Amino acid sequence: NRSSLTNTLRGITNEEKLNNLWLKMQITVNSIFDSSLDNRSGARVAKGIRQVIEKKEGLFRMYMMGKRVNYADRSVISPDPFIAIYEVGIPEIFAKKLTYPELVTPHNVYELRQLILNGPEVHPGANFVELEDGTIRRLLPNNLSQRTAVAKLLLTREKQHSDTSLMFTKKVYRHLRTGDYVLVNRQPTLHRPSIQAHMARV
């Protein structure tokens, strides 16, 4: 009850007890953000938010930045005097893995059809086609007839989708090619210039 709680608090007057309780609560709140601020001896303190995300073993560097994700790769970097200062050289083997989801329209359908026919092993080509319902269709490198059939149906609606607004919603995941813009990060990422936009040069 209230009287027993008051008796367990340090202090003689109620004002001292309230002040000590306030300080104890403030330390507890501080330790949620940074557990190193909790200097209570012998107290078992859980990791604070700062301890969870900082250092190499933290949430970002261990579980997010160090893992491979879509539309990203990792490599060494070296200078090249034969490209423009705003360009970054991308090896062709990387360009075949890095894809850009380009929406199919009547204006680019012929170009995208040719990329599909090239397939995943010829650059510039394409690796996947996304249908109206979100289904991803993988383009087979050794099956030209499959790629030809997919290319012919780029502007054709699937039977189950009669809505005309879904007519131009297919996407072709084409290879990265010269002229595309990419974000390049050099670790340690300490400030804004650590991540810059450059034009790809395959």
From TrEMBL:
Signal sequence residues: none
The protein's name: DNA-directed RNA polymerase
Species of provenance: Rotaria sordida
UniProt xrefs under Gene3D superfamilies: 2.40.40.20, RNA polymerase ii
InterPro entries xrefs: DNA-dir_RpoC_beta_prime, RNA_pol_asu, RNA_pol_N
GO CC term (a single one): RNA polymerase I complex
EC number of the protein: 2.7.7.6
Superkingdom field: Eukaryota
Enzyme class: transferase
Pfam families per UniProt: RNA_pol_Rpb1_2
Gene Ontology annotations of biological process type: DNA-templated transcription
Molecular function per GO: DNA binding; DNA-directed RNA polymerase activity
Assigned keywords, A-Z: DNA-directed RNA polymerase, Nucleotidyltransferase, Transcription, Transferase
